[in-house]
Specification:
alpha/beta, Rossmann fold, six-stranded parallel sheet, 15 strands
Length: 451
Amino acid sequence: MSAHLSRRQFTRAAAASAVFSLLPGRVVGANEKVNVAFIGCGGMGAGDAKSIAKTGLVNVVALCDVALGSRHTADIEERFPGIPKYRDFRQLFDKHGKEIDACTVAVPDHAHFPIAMRAMAEGIHCYVEKPLAHTFEEIELMIAAEKKYKVSCQMGNQGHSGPNYHQFKAWKEAGVIQGVTKITAHMNSGRRWHGWKIDGYEEDPMPEGLDWDVWLGTAPAHPYSKKLHPGNWRSWYDYGNGAFGDWGPHILDTCHRFLNLGLPHRITGVKRDGPNEYIFPQATTVRFDFPAREGEPPCEVTWYDGVANFPEPPAELDDARKAKWGKPKLSPGKEIHGKDLTFMGGSHGSPLRIIPESTMRDIAKDLPKIASGSSHHKNFILAAKGEEKTRSPFHVSGPLSQVFCLGVLAQRLGGVLEFDRETKRITNRSVADALLAGPPPRKGWEEYYRL
């Protein structure tokens, strides 16, 4: 990338140039197993690996993790003995790209993008953990790459294949959910960074065998620290998307999809407790204003995080449940205020309830029956085989994840951000607009921003 070409110009030009490829992504025969590589083998990556292997529809051909040989990857390494293993995803694709049909990407938020872009360019179907990527414009490129390379992609918000997905779809189509003007969403559990006193990056001795350069990927370079790896990366603006990027995909996904929310025109950092230059605040409230869409009224969505930062209980809640609101803690979830009905729901695939409960009982017999389907991981593998379509492809999960990226900017900067939905620019604050792209990629990592 030339020195005078900004990351924004580069990503926008590349996304605009995306066209459908003449050749589709890997096609797997009906009676063949899908050759899959697991990239990220600890934590959530281990869970994805186990679930995909459990389908019985795959051959595991390679493992990749920057910390192979550590206790975090031991379970998966033991489950798949004799499989080729790599710390660097580039070496994995160099040596096995032609034999891999599909891969999982379950690494820190900032590292989703280069791995997925390389895989899609190889025609490999991608399962990428949530949120889809670290910055708004990286997601733009991932959506464009999915289209260009004709691959089947799935974001790892597993509830999007669960009961809430099928229920929300059926209730919206039947008119049970209609005229939604207000949604509150909340996740009030303690986070890793709560209580931290941070005034910069720290440095700790490097664990043996950890490939820190690959861990950093395209992101800004900082020394290894226990407050970054393993797991703590989500706390930092340079690497993670905080509680909102972590839990928003499990709480707001069906609202976003079936209410056709798209992107907001205004984002407001209503509350920030303990704002910090490096890590997320201790608690935040962020409001998103979505304009009227075809058949839908304007809608206000408000997000709450922090251990004691609760929304007000909905007026429709019965007195006994109101008295218990937030005691001892409020479960992750949402309240949806429609034209005629109010709904409460939890996280992931948890189905909605109509409140008050008396209303739910009165109309229960008239509610549409709820369908079911394949699990999220099986849906991805069946899509790789051409037998289903993924339920959370990048062109669906991408705009959802971009909402979280916009929310992170409000958590980081506070105040009001005016967003132009047509140009996809923040029009009132240049600092925020520049952060849609983020800093330029590290030297040697520029290639992933080209389609």
